[in-house]
Design goal:
Layout: E1 4-7, H1 17-30, H2 37-44, H3 49-60, H4 66-81, H5 91-100, E2 104-108, H6 113-122, E3 131-133, H7 146-155, E4 162-166, H8 169-177, E5 181-184, H9 193-196, H10 206-216, H11 221-236, H12 238-250, H13 252-255, H14 261-270, H15 280-289
Parallel strand pairs: 1-2, 1-4, 2-3, 4-5
Helix pairs in contact: 1-4, 3-4, 5-10, 10-11, 11-15, 12-14
């Protein structure tokens, strides 16, 4: 039974990847370079600030030391962030659920402590974490497992009952290397299929994780597996959800008690072959619990 959840930070808990891109974009723009989101995603996403500073200086021949560019980056990012850093959908709801149900909760981030703590305090969510591991606390960055192993050590818990929540391929690799199950909620850069296939599942938002844990707390594990299968298919095919919702709108939302044979036939018409044997009521229940996915 899962009793420990370890959160990544940038791109998973908070929407900071776009701020990182904008920071580099503004710095390079002053030097006459065009810097696109595609370039950021391909070459700089998932990397540490120090490594990015080193690579940007080399690639664009900027007249700075790594320390100077880091300081410039931090100051500009702080200025951009002062307008507000958004939490990812479902973040507060998931954290509140975990705390209320006595899970061990850790943050494991490649961000510097001061930066991460400021954002956590801004959103009043630092209080949810039992422990945090920051960039300063480790010698090796992801995909090395050190950061997750240190989180387990500080919590004094086993990897067998833990899950990691990640958005990046390096994060998934680090969790696998630490022998911890991982759920992926992709951000700007979607991990390769090779690594997505190694996760428990790939969700669309942290609300999907909430649904998973709520279902996992039940003894009905068959239902859990089927429900997560439904969520994954919904995430891959939003049009399927809309078709099913048309049926739900006209019947289940109106009555909350039953589905007519005609409604059931409509649902079966749109359900992929993989779900033909799944209870139609479970499909409706999943839709109801996962409206955030729509």
């Amino acid at each position: 039974m899962i009793d420990t959840v370890i959160f990544d930070f940038d791109g998973l808990l908070v929407d900071t990847e776009i701020i990182a891109y904008e920071t580099y974009h503004q710095i390079l723009d002053k030097h006459g370079f065009v810097f696109t989101k595609e370039e950021y995603t391909q070459y700089y996403s998932e990397k540490t600030d120090t490594l990015n500073a080193e690579n940007i200086i080399k690639h664009y021949h900027l007249p700075y030391t790594i320390e100077e560019l880091l300081q410039m980056t931090f100051e500009l990012e702080e200025k951009i962030s002062s307008k507000g850093v958004k939490l990812k959908p479902g973040a507060k709801e998931l954290l509140a659920y975990l705390k209320a149900n006595h899970y061990h909760i850790a943050l494991a981030t490649s961000s510097f402590k001061k930066r991460a703590v400021n954002i956590l305090q801004e959103h009043d969510i630092l209080k949810y974490f039992d422990t945090c591991v920051f960039l300063e606390d480790v010698k090796h960055s992801k995909p090395h497992p050190e950061i997750f192993l240190k989180a387990l050590e500080k919590l004094n818990v086993s990897n067998k009952n833990a899950i990691v929540l990640e958005d990046s391929e390096n994060g998934i690799k680090a969790a696998i290397n630490a022998k911890i199950d991982v759920i992926c909620i992709p951000d700007m850069k979607i991990p390769s299929k090779e690594y997505l296939d190694k996760t428990l599942f790939t969700g669309r938002s942290l609300f999907d994780v909430l649904t998973y844990l709520q279902t996992n707390s039940s003894d009905d594990f068959t239902k859990k597996d089927e429900q997560m299968k439904i969520i994954e298919i919904f995430n891959r095919d939003p049009l399927l959800i809309q078709k099913l919702l048309e049926v739900w709108e006209s019947s289940v939302r109106a009555t909350h008690l039953f589905l007519s044979d005609n409604d059931i036939n409509h649902i079966k018409e749109y359900v992929p072959q993989a779900l033909k044997e799944v209870d139609h009521l479970l499909i409706i229940e999943t839709i109801r619990k996962s409206l955030l996915v729509l």
